[in-house]
Specification:
The strands form 3 sheets. An 8-stranded parallel β-sheet has the order 3-4-5-6-7-8-9-10. Strands 1-2-11-14 form a 4-stranded antiparallel β-sheet. It has 11 helices and 14 strands. It is 32% helix and 18% strand.
Length: 352
């Protein structure tokens, strides 16, 4: 990567955790991601969820149809399947043969459209055994959902109650700890022993690098800064920023950009999710620049993800320039609107 005070050139990144929804809104949100990223891991938590190869293939076809409408031929969706208590070992093997990129573990009730998720991880052990055998990665939403666990502690408890036991039972299963939010998660991934094999990684979102939980309550409720896992204390943000900018290949870019219409966010029971796709790379650049680590951005954004997934790195280069970019207060979303992260503000970096 070549750097100057006002410009960064890097190999085009990928987004290793993305929500694009379905139906009329897909084209609007897909356009933002396809403008910046070459590939993206597509989340399967639709209604109904994408639980089989046939459903994933149908979803891919709808995505490709929208890309054609956008006249985009340089963006590749990487499909995933939604893990359930009933996922069979045979479906895992079928998914591997069909080029499915990964399975996604949602603990039941943890986040948007997760009601059909896993109720007890041990019910999935046959599927996990098959995933380990065929080299299929498991992507993990790392929170417990017990009502007696404080929402700010759910990720740390998940490490002890679920993640660590699963890794001990399946030591060669490749796992991505998605959208980590705590010092405990960052240190767990950093320090995990893997027997010399690259079996654990983590994605980190722009909001968790830039904001702590005060951002949800600054001068009143800020629903567009509310996501799950929820923003944490400043010490956790600092630990995540340290991990992302460390050059450790276990940490890479995953926006978790999650589109919800403005009315669904500004509601009595507002939806969880931040829409960062509009200006994701500028947000990441701002975070890395805040600790003078812009030289570490290319590895985090462009190299470590494909390396973990055993995919080729991209070859096309993109350029970010240090030029003020005003973020619109609203963007189109089907027949509604969406409020992007940092709406109405000016950020320092933009994609040329």
């Amino acid at each position: 990567m070549s750097n100057s005070p006002t410009q960064i050139q890097l190999i085009q990144p990928d987004d290793w955790h993305l929500h694009i929804r379905d139906g009329e809104v897909m084209k609007d949100v897909l356009a933002d991601s396809a403008r910046q990223f070459a590939r993206a891991i597509i989340m399967p938590n639709l209604k109904p969820p994408v639980t089989t190869v046939a459903l994933a293939n149908a979803y891919r076809t709808r995505i490709e149809a929208n890309l054609k409408l956008l006249d985009v031929n340089s963006f590749t969706p990487l499909m995933t399947l939604y893990l359930t208590d009933n996922t069979s070992a045979d479906e895992v093997r079928k998914a591997r043969s069909a080029g499915i990129a990964a399975f996604k573990l949602y603990p039941a009730g943890a986040t948007t459209n997760s009601d059909e998720g896993v109720s007890d991880i041990k019910r999935c052990y046959q599927a996990l055994e098959a995933m380990q055998a065929v080299g299929m990665p498991l992507l993990v939403h790392g929170e417990v959902t017990s009502a007696d666990i404080d929402i700010f502690d759910r990720e740390a408890v998940f490490i002890d109650q679920v993640l660590d036991p699963v890794r001990k039972d399946f030591p060669e299963l490749k796992m991505v700890f998605e959208h980590i939010t705590t010092k405990q998660a960052a240190h767990y991934v950093r320090d995990a022993t893997t027997g010399g094999k690259n079996t654990i990684a983590a994605t980190i979102t722009p909001q968790h690098l830039l904001f702590n939980r005060n951002a949800i309550f600054a001068g009143g409720i800020r629903p567009h800064n509310y996501c799950l896992p929820v923003l944490k204390r400043e010490e956790h943000r600092v630990a995540l920023l340290e991990a992302a900018t460390s050059g450790n290949p276990r940490f890479f870019l995953g926006t978790d950009s999650a589109p919800h219409a403005k009315g669904a966010k500004e509601a009595a029971c507002g939806c969880a999710g931040c829409y960062s796709a509009f200006n994701a790379l500028g947000l990441y650049a701002e975070a890395f620049e805040s600790v003078n680590k812009l030289d570490k951005l290319e590895g985090f954004a462009s190299f470590f993800g494909p390396d973990f997934y055993s995919l080729p790195r991209n070859s096309k280069k993109i350029t970010l320039t240090k030029q003020a970019q005003h973020i619109p207060t609203e963007l189109p979303l089907g027949d509604a609107t969406i409020v992007p992260l940092r709406a109405g503000e000016t950020i320092a970096w933009m994609l040329v």
